[in-house]
Design a protein that fits this description.
Structural class: alpha/beta
CATH architecture: Alpha-Beta Barrel
CATH topology: TIM Barrel
Number of strands: 8
Number of domains: 1
Radius of gyration: 17 Å
CATH superfamily: Divalent-metal-dependent TIM barrel enzymes
CATH class: Alpha Beta
Shape: globular
Distance between the termini: 10 Å
Strand order of the largest sheet: 1-2-3-4-5-6-7-8
Helix content: 40-55%
Order of helices and strands: EHEHEHEHEHEHHEHEH
């Protein structure tokens, strides 16, 4: 079995300062991070310095919320402008992958589904052009129906990439989201093939690998079969209500560290 590099999503640590997150990730044994693209928290230079000192690579950036499919063109334009600034941030940081997805938490169309999917495509096309100008690779993250109303499967993401007709856009598949949407997650990985540029992992309950019913052996084997060379990014979250709030109480960080430690051990075994 291939030994993949490992990363962790920094947003799962909540409001903890990046210095503390970097220290925790390094102590746990991660190779790098997927950095939350909150442009108000740190500059690219600050983030790069903190993570480099901890011996961590920045594999990718995940966005804060931006609605790329909203009926109001001003809202969509604001979303595209956020990604423009995120891409500039990425270019200064060293050209990590930039993740893009529908608005997290909006699960129904405000206008109609067909129109909003069309607006999403147009927004992502504009973002891809901006990314190309900065030598940045863009990955579209597939989320489940309880987090967004737009793209839910690898096949739908592939159709979007086909429509874009660009060479700097790929797919991000997530084991947790695939557990809900894909009849065969390993098959979805195989179908994505060389367009799968990033992979996220958490078990079916978004806890540590091995605490749910996800068949990670089949997914890791599928990654190996397609020649995937990217990292496995862990995106576990602490238990409790409100899945979009990572730190829910004074035990959340304890749970998170335990889940990450268990997941790393399982990956390495």
């Amino acid at each position: 079995m291939t030994i993949f590099r490992t990363g962790v999503c920094t947003w799962t640590f909540g409001e903890l300062p990046l210095e503390h997150i970097a220290r925790a990730a390094s102590e746990l044994g991660f190779d790098g991070v997927e950095l939350l693209g909150d442009l108000n928290r740190y500059t690219a230079r600050e983030a790069g310095t903190i993570l480099s000192r901890a011996g961590l690579e920045v594999f990718s950036l995940t966005p804060t919320d931006a609605d790329l499919a909203h009926p109001d063109p001003k809202v969509r334009a604001a979303g595209v402008d956020y990604y423009r600034r995120l891409i500039e941030f990425a270019a200064e940081l060293g050209e990590p992958l930039v993740s893009c997805h529908g608005l997290v938490g909006r699960v129904a169309a405000l206008a109609d589904q067909a129109s909003e999917l069309s607006w999403l495509r147009e927004s992502v096309a504009a973002i891809a052009v901006e990314a190309k100008a900065h030598s940045i690779l863009l990955v579209f993250e597939v989320l489940n129906r309880y987090e967004t109303h737009t793209i839910h499967t690898g096949r739908e993401a592939a159709d979007l990439i086909d429509w874009l007709e660009v060479d700097n856009a790929g797919i991000l598949l997530d084991a947790y989201h695939m557990n809900i949407e894909e009849p065969d997650p390993a098959g979805a990985i195989l179908e994505a093939g060389d367009r799968l540029w990033l992979y996220h992992a958490a078990d079916s309950n978004r806890q540590a690998l091995g605490r749910g019913h996800t068949d990670f052996r089949s997914q890791l084997t599928a990654l190996q079969s397609i020649g995937y060379t990217g990292p496995v990014i862990l995106e576990c979250t602490a238990p409790g209500p409100n899945p979009f709030t990572p730190i829910k109480d004074d035990r959340s960080l304890e749970f998170l560290r335990q889940y990450l430690s268990e997941s790393l051990c399982r990956l390495k075994s």
